[in-house]
Amino acid sequence: MSMGYGYFSIDFYTNDGSPDADAAKRAYDWCMENYDWFKGENGDGSDIPPFLLSGNSFEANDDDYYADGLVIKGTNIPGDVDWLADAAKETKAARLVASVIQDYSESSHWSNGYTEKVWIDGEERHSYGVGEFTRTMADYLPYERDSSIAFRLEEGGFRHSQGKFKNAKTGEIVLGGDLRFWLDDEDYIDTESSLLFFWNSDGRVPIDKDSIDKKECVRAFVSEVKSFMSNDCEIDESDWTFEGFDSQPSFFDIYGKNPPTAPFMDCEDYARKLDVEIDMKNGIFHCTDKRATNVTIPDGFTKIGKEAFRGCKSLASVEIPDSVTEIGKLAFYECESLASVEFGGTAAQWEAVKKGDYWNQCVPAESVKCADGEAGM
Questions:
Q1: pLDDT (0 to 100) of residue 209
Q2: Residue 198: C-alpha distances to residues 153, 220, 266 (Å)
Q3: Which of 84, 122, 190, 217 is 20 to 30 A from 289 via CA?
Q4: What is the pTM of this model?
Q5: H/E run at residue 261
C-alpha cells in the first residue's frame, strides 16, 4: 500500500441525534461546488468522484474505493476530515461527525493514523486523534509506539485507556491520566509493568499487573484537577475512588444517539465545571449554553466571568443589570453575532464597568443602550 489510503466515515445528524439527510445533501452540494477535487481527479466532474451521497452520509464511491480504501497520497483527496468544517458551517448543519483511518505503508505499522471530529452548529466541539498506531497488537492493546500510550481497540475507532475516578457524593465519573506501557531501548512493550501518567501535574503512578495503589492514583488525579483550576477550591480526596481503567466512548456512539450525552468528563472539563460552579455561587455570571441567542443576566450578579460567553457564536443580544460592576477577560470573545447590548445602569456607570481592554472583542455591536442613553463600547 505504498500510495497510502484512507477509510472515511462522514455522517450528519439533527440536534436530537437523528440522521439528517437534508443537511448531508446541502453539504454534499456545497463541497461539489467549492472543492474541485470533490468532483474527481480532473476537477471538472468528467471522471469518478471520490464520494457519493447516501442518506445522511458521504460514502466512498465503490468504483473508486479500492480494496484498501480511497487513495489519499499522490492524489488531491485530503488525508484528513478538516475540509468538512466549512461545509458544516456554510450549510448550517446541526451536527456532523467524521473520521478517517489513514494507512500510508504496507511495510511499517507506525505510519497509520486515526482522526475523528465533531462539529455542532458549524463549530468544532470535539476532536480525537491517534498519530500512530498498530493494528497487529489487537490481542493485547493497540498503542502509540513513540510515547507508549495504551489504546483500546473498539469498533469504529481507537480510545485512550485512562484511569476512571468516581465521586461518592455526586456519582460523577471523571477520566484522568493515560495508561502508558514501559518501552525499553529495543521498543519492547512490557504489558506487565506500566504507569498511570498525568501530563499537567507530572503525576506518575506505577501500575503492575497485580498491584495498583488506588490511594496514590486518587492523589495524582486530584493534583491534576487542581492544576487546571483558576480559583481556590478544596477537593476532598476522601470523596473519590479509583475504579480501574476505561476510555471515552466514540463520538460516533455519543452523537448518533438520543440524548447525546457523554458519560465521562476528563480532568480539564471537570476543573472547568468546578470553576464555573464556584463563580456562580459568588455572583459571577457564566453562560452555560453556547448556543444561546438572547441572554438576560439576572439582577444580583456583580461580575461577568472570564470567558463567560466565549464561543457563543449565535449570541445576538445581551441584557446586563446595573448590579454588574466588572467584565472578565475575554468575556465576549468569538461572539461574532452580538449586535445588541443593553445595560440597566447609566452611561457613567457603564464607563466604569467596561474598564480595561476585555470588552470589545470585535463584536458587531458599536454601542450600548443604557438607562439614560447610549454609550460607547
A1: 64
A2: 22, 7, 11
A3: 84
A4: 0.69
A5: none
Half-sphere exposure of 260 (CA within 13 A, CB side): 20
User: Which residue would you say has higher pLDDT here, 188 or 121?
Assistant: 121
* Residue found by looking up cell 465521562 in the block: 264
Beta bridge partners of 176: 163
Highest mean pLDDT among 161-170, 202-211, 214-223, 281-290: 214-223
Average pLDDT, integer, range 152-166: 69
Q: How far, in Å, CA of 149 to CA of 182, rounded?
A: 9
DSSP-H helix ranges across the chain: 21-34, 84-90, 214-228, 251-255, 267-281, 347-353
- Residue closest to 224 by CA, chosen among 187, 245, 198: 198
What gap in Å lies between CA 112 and CA 238, rounded to an integer?
42
3-class secondary structure, 27: helix
* CA max distance for the chain: 75
